[in-house]
Amino acid sequence: MSKKYSRYLVPSLRDARKRINRETIIHKYELDSKYISLGAGKTYFIKTYGCQGNLADSEKIAGILEELGFIKAECEELSDVVIFNTCAIRENAENRVFGELGRTKKYKKDNPDSIICLCGCMAQEEKVIEKVKRLCPHVDIIFGTHNISQLPELLYEVINTSSKVVDVLSYEGDIVEGVPLKRDHSKKAWVNIMYGCDEFCTYCIVPYTRGRERSRLPEDIIAEVKSLALEGYKEVTLLGQNVNSYGRDLDINYTFSNLLTDLHKIDIPRIRFTTSHPKDFDDATIDAFALGGNIMPYLHLPVQSGSSNVLKKMNRKYTREEYLDKVRKLKEKVPNISITTDIIVGFPNETDEEFKETLTLVEECGFEGAYTFIFSPREGTPAATYPDEISEETKKQRLYELNKLVNEGYLKGNKRFEGTIQEVLVDGVSSKSDNVLTGYTPNNKLVNFNGDKSLIGEIVKVKIEKAFSWHLRGKLVD
Ligand code: SAH
Ligand code: SF4
Ligand code: F3S
Fold first, then answer.
1. Three-state SS for 141?
2. Which residues pair with 122 in a beta bridge?
3. In degrees rounded to 5, what are phi and psi of residue 146?
4. Ligand 1 lined by 42 (C-beta under 6 Å)
5. Bridge partners for 429 per DSSP
6. Cβ of 53 less than 6 Å from ligand 3
7. Which tens digit of pLDDT belongs to each residue from 190-216?
8. Counting atoms of ligand 2 from 1, which one is nearest the CA of 275?
9. pLDDT digits (tens, 9 = 90+) for 306-347
């Protein structure tokens, strides 16, 4: 017999659009002692889709579960708790998750007590919850992006009452500090500096699934980075949907460039950040970049389109010229920098001329990589209702043309390092051979070279011998 819902709190995209002007409350995570041995003798498995924000959330979910006594399972099929931390950015991302959720039905045959959970951005969509209810009634828990810290309570309820729960808030929660973390990597760490997004680019669902923009306090971020440095971490990546607007919601006159300047003083070898928004990427941030040292010479600066007209329809709040100007200034002050971007083709009624403007901008900027997408209408966003006469065929052709150009940029960007000596943070062994190590240079280029496993986690010097489109090949320098 199918289980009943003991709570059923669904979100609404319309409510999620509202922004209430109030101060963010910072809570301290505390675990109620009644949940402490909930996971004793049990295992968990988390599948993460989407952006770095989701990867960071999965580390929190894992941290909470381990505090409850769960241990990480070797594989999904045999796990007692399976969690799908999902992404709603494009339709194909969602379809994939439904395919995988369908397959989990059979896990219940082997392990009737197993608990299947759906969370992340898809869980913030009412239509997804209705679809799960209809097509995947074996899903036990749905929780949202705003109530991750409530997971112990939801698991407790499902385990003790043999029920199912849906508990998703439309409005963002506040900030919860001190959530336990089980980091995936022992030398590289994600550090959230803010949550949510207030930009409302017309194509994008994130402001609805992640809520109002909320910045963590500088002292909390600085303390986290300092303690990571002490633990031997070599790299931190600061996370936010628009890191350049960091601090805007705090009443303390402290901006992203102030934060970078403060973090620059900490003894940690590498600082990266993502994602930057061209509208708010300012001179002060360029100056912070120019400090060099542990601030890595790599910037991901999504442009989305090279046409000012399309940018306006996307509500990006900058023009082609303004974007080019910022890139020019940055390259003047940090000549060695590598810049990558995100581009959407086939935005509703994008003309051939507008698309060509994207191609010329790609050339002018000399991007060393780009994530390219065909526009995917997301229910609830303005652009999903814009009239669109462009055929799928044309959109695919544009993507193909753009990717050809982008790939040339990857190769050019790699070639300029041939013959140089690079500091490489060693990530692990290559999937192809046990003797080959892989790692990243300051400019975020992937390098393969022969070396011993004992070097994993170290920063080593590598002479770059040959550049390929997707990686560099090098040799250890003694
Ligand atoms: N906050 C970041 C990342 C947002 S999501 C930023 O502002 O850049 C990552 C990328 O997905 C976006 O940069 C955009 O290129 C793409 N994207 C977002 N919504 C999309 C949609 N509806 N269809 C196609 N691509 C989309
Ligand atoms: Fe989406 Fe725009 Fe916010 Fe990025 S800045 S998450 S593209 S709304
Ligand atoms: Fe996807 Fe949500 Fe990130 S929609 S891209 S997981 S913020």
1. strand
2. none
3. -95, -10
4. no
5. 437
6. yes
7. 999 999 999 999 999 999 999 999 999
8. 4
9. 999 999 999 999 999 999 999 999 999 999 999 999 999 999
